[in-house]
What we know:
Elements lengths: L1 E4 L4 E6 L9 H7 L4 H9 L3 H90 L3 H24 L20 E4 L4 E8 L4 E6 L2 E6 L3 E4 L5 H13 L7 E3 L5 H17 L4 E5 L6 H12 L3 E6 L9 E6 L2
Parallel strand pairs: 8-9
Antiparallel strand pairs: 1-2, 3-4, 3-7, 4-5, 5-6, 9-11, 10-11
Helix pairs in contact: 3-4, 6-7
Amino acid sequence: SCEFDVEPLRPTYRLLMGIPGKSNAFEISRRLGLDESIIDDAKSRMDKQSADFENVLALLQKERQIMEKEQQEAVKLRRQAEEELKKAEEYRKRMESEKEKAGVAAKREAERLLREARRTSEEVFEELNEMRKNAARAENIQQLNEARVELIKKLNNAQAELVAGAEEEELPPPPSSRPVKAGDTVEIIKIGKKAEVIAVSSDRVLTLQAGIMRITAKEEEVRLLEGVKSDTQKYIEKSEAKLRNLTVKPEIDLRGMMAEEAVAVMENYLDSARRANLNSVRVIHGKGTGVLRKAVQNSLKRNPFVKSFRLGRYGEGETGVTVVEFNN
Length: 328
């Protein structure tokens, strides 16, 4: 039979195999506005068997339409599920590929950093051996400070190149048990090196002392080591014992150093000068932009052994020199 849609009063032109046709005379008449009494009279003139047959056909057609709708919905859901499964599989493959690439890149970067660190450490050891030889023959602390300045500059340059090459994205390290503060000992995660926290800026950028290397790092790039004494502290304590036995000149030249480096060198020098019973010393920081002079004088304000300090007068170096007087 051919399917007929009663609502718009037109055939759908769908051929229904195995289903007999149904008369839609009553529905069509009702849609066309024929009086309901006439339609009821016509229905009463039909024999019971014909009426039952019409009702069965109507029920079958309704069931068929429901089944067809459910089948279409099931097909739609199956297609959606297949699409989602396809997308999930593509995402999984992409993640596995990116993970594999990231692992290879991280391994290569780690090997490169290790080679750079080993090369830098060898250079540092050579410089240290030379410093020890010179210190054994030195008659004053000035030669040792100058050698230290040059070594720090070389190490800073090497560290800057090392850190610049290691700024690729990677998984964040596990958080420390508490915020890092000055004086803590931490491990630099990228190179596995212990360091001491010298200072913490307002935006949580750390200044670290790793051996005799002075570097900066973000807080998430380090791991806090509780109850561990840093190599820097051990080195400083050992160096201080040696420096006390050297003859101290009445002045120190800090020009060419970074502010934080200069303050650390000056504090060691002032301690040695005070132990050598000097009444006053001259700290040469140069005129420049005034950043180094400000850092030096801020440190002197906090030093309990400094009685007073002033800028140099005419013939003493003027604003490029600060004269420091110790407490008696």
